[in-house]
Amino acid sequence: MIVVPFDKSTAIAEILATAPGIPTVFTTGFASRVAASLDDRPNHFYMTGSMGLALALGTGVAMASQQPTIVVDGDGSLLMNPATLLAVGTAPDLPLVHIVLDDGLYASTGGQPTPGRHAHLTGLATASGHPSVCEAINPSALRARLTTALDASSAAFIHCPVEADATPPRTRVTPDLPGIATRFQQYVRQTAAT
């Protein structure tokens, strides 16, 4: 049996390959850095310096545009602001896919453990009212669950237990953060209008 390493970078690469044109919000830290280094695109928004707010931003994008939106979150980030799960749970028809990459670490700040391993994240999402809650334990499962969630056009929560990346991403997100925000806003407006 061939074991495919399933770390944060592998999961993000799978998300990029599966949903190349979907507006996607990446949580602060390594998730943003990995996505930007793998394939920086105008439909990507990199949340920098606002841990715990990626889901809130992605929820707003999905509500305003009424088009499928992906949030790539971390376990530590989600646990900084779990109340947003309730907001999504009250809008079951929201075209939002919330993917939580759970490596059990605050990777960007030195690898301290998060309380995520002691919390049942799928249980939190279910209790919050998400109509679709599942787990993806390898790249093919992530691809299948993300494809299904995007086809359903309703709120979905995908929990991905992943291993920590062996090395940190090479580059930081560009310092032109206003430019990133502007191009993302233009992309969302353009695709919502079509």
What is the gyration radius calculated from CA atoms? 15 Å
Point out poorly predicted stretches. Answer: none
Major sheet details? 6 strands, parallel
Count of beta strands: 8
Shape summary: globular
Secondary-structure-derived class = alpha/beta
The total of helices stands at 8
Q: Level of helix content? A: 40-55%
Oligomer: single chain
> Order of helices and strands, N to C?
HEHEHEHHEEEHEHEH
Strand order in the largest sheet: 2-1-3-4-8-7
Give the DSSP E fraction (strand runs of 2 or more residues). 15-25%
Lay out the secondary structure.
Elements: H1 8-18, E1 24-26, H2 30-39, E2 44-46, H3 54-65, E3 69-74, H4 75-80, H5 83-89, E4 96-102, E5 105-106, E6 112-113, H6 121-127, E7 132-135, H7 139-152, E8 156-161, H8 177-193
Parallel strand pairs: 1-2, 1-3, 3-4, 4-8, 7-8
Antiparallel strand pairs: 5-6
Helix pairs in contact: 1-2, 1-7
Summarize the structure.
The chain has 194 residues and is an alpha/beta fold.
Description:
It is a single chain. It contains eight helices and eight strands, in the order H-E-H-E-H-E-H-H-E-E-E-H-E-H-E-H. It has 194 residues and is of the alpha/beta class. The chain has a six-stranded parallel β-sheet, with helices on both faces. A two-stranded antiparallel sheet has the order 5-6. The mean pLDDT is 90.
